[in-house]
Amino acid sequence: MKIYKFGGASVKDADGVRNISSIIQNHKGNELLIVISAMGKITNKLEELTSAYINGQEDVHQIFEEVKLYHFNLLNQLFSNHDHPIFNDIINTFVEIDWLIEEEPEDAPDYIYDQIVSIGEIVSTKIVAAYLSTLQNNIKWVDARNFIHTDNTYREGLVNWEKTEAEIQKGLAPVLKNNIVVTQGFIGSTSENFTTTLGREGSDYSAAIFSACLNAESVTIWKDVPGVLNADPKWFDVTEMIPQLSYHDAIELAYYGATVIHPKTIKPIQNKNIPLYVRSFLNPDAPGTEITDLKNHLPVPSFIFKVNQALLSIFPKDFSFIIEENLSDIFSLFHKHKVKINTMLNSAISFSISFDYDAKKLDQLMTDLSKDYKIKYNTGVELVTIRYYNQETIDRVTVNKNILLEVKSRNTCQIVMKDKKETE
Ligand code: ASP
Question: For a disulfide at 117, which of 46, 159, 188, 195, Cβ 3.0-4.6 Å?
């Protein structure tokens, strides 16, 4: 049994769907489960729709029309027969959003978010499954919400592993014996059958959950890059493909922000020792990257950039030291405002962190912290993480930069920096 995961970029248009179908047709023999995300950038659009609805904006219907149009354009290109039942199926699926936005938004925003945004995955998988069914007859669309069970932390559902594994074993494993299953990434459901989502970019994690619960032979994440690279081509002219990677390095890279794999993906498959492949859907014959329990570490230094960071330095007002007591205060405020720390460093009288800049969070945090602490902050700074660094790699990324913070462990170096001309 193998698991394939296709993200939004692989199904952004009709050619993408046709390309997936040829990858699947080349897959011989084995049982196969296919996990698919919402098409293209539809999740962003559905997020926009959700906030327009919650804030009572007038353009809510217009945004919804754009979402529908995008899918119907794609359907028209894939199916010449416009009487195909998929057209009605998609119309009916979108009606769920119609019903919701007809009412005043009374429920909690995170709950509303999950009910609306999850529709992206439902429609994309229905379209892909219907298209694949025109080419082969063992395709089965499955609702992931019947199998992935979470608590009711909307937008970041916490998986109930025991229940999920039992349901997958009981209900899904037998279906896979005779069918290629197409299901959604990113979504699950609560014990009351309300839809939850697993956090943005969570489809990789769904693939990992299914793999672990089915004891899959392997998982393949199909991407628009040749495999795991040692840097994002957006920032580096020359990058290197890493043919083999250990689970450990993969977790570290994902944790520090390498967007190639969702950070929660690796652990469940590492626990079951399932190989993970990252391969290109644009070049499906190339081997890509293999992630296993390899003992060797990364062959080349790897770089992860995060721009648009806020750097916050916190000083106790009473000139006391930064000790466990005030640290626990400070951490509970980060937790309260859902601030995810990207770097941290403490000295005797200050504690500094960097996090993804978010005006609202920064403001709330400052209001709470400034009761007991003096704060200094910078915005618009960059964070670079170098795994397996040396002085040469540090010099390379800090040309024309002022270093505001540097944190080093044995294998990883993190630098928060700002362009020289901006700081002078
Ligand atoms: N569609 C979701 C997102 O864009 C989940 C995913 O693609 O992994 O975040």
Answer: 46
- The pTM assigned to this predicted structure is 0.92
Out of 12, 43, 117, mutate this one to test ligand 1's pocket (max ligand atoms within 8 Å of CB): namely: 43
| Helical residues (DSSP H) of 27-80, grouped into ranges | 42-54, 60-78
Distance CA 327, CA 35 (A): 41
The finding on whether 202 has its CB within 6 A of some atom of ligand 1 is: yes
> Which residue has a Cα nearest atom 2 of ligand 1?
201
Q: For ligand 1, say whether the CB of 186 is within 6 Å of any of its atoms.
A: yes
Smallest CA separation from ligand 1 atom 8, residue:
201
From the CB of residue 171, how many other CB atoms can be counted at a distance below 10 Å?
12
Q: Which domains does the chain have, with CATH numbers?
A: 2-216 (3.40.1160.10), 302-423 (3.30.2130.10)
Please say if the pLDDT value at position 242 is more than 70: yes
**C-alpha pair distances (Å), 320 with each of 317, 324, 325, 372:** 8, 12, 11, 11
pLDDT tens-digit readout, 343-359: 999 888 889 999 999 99
Angle formed by the axes of helices 85-102 and 119-133, to 10°?
170
What's the token pair of residue 151? 């608590």
Gap between the Cα atoms of 362 and 374, Å rounded: 14
**Per-position DSSP letters for 122-166, written without gaps between them:** HHHHHHHHHHHHTT-S-EEE--GGGT-BB-S-TTSPPB-HHHHHH
- CB of 188 sitting under 6 A from ligand 1: no
Ligand 1 center from residue 248 Cα (angstroms): 24
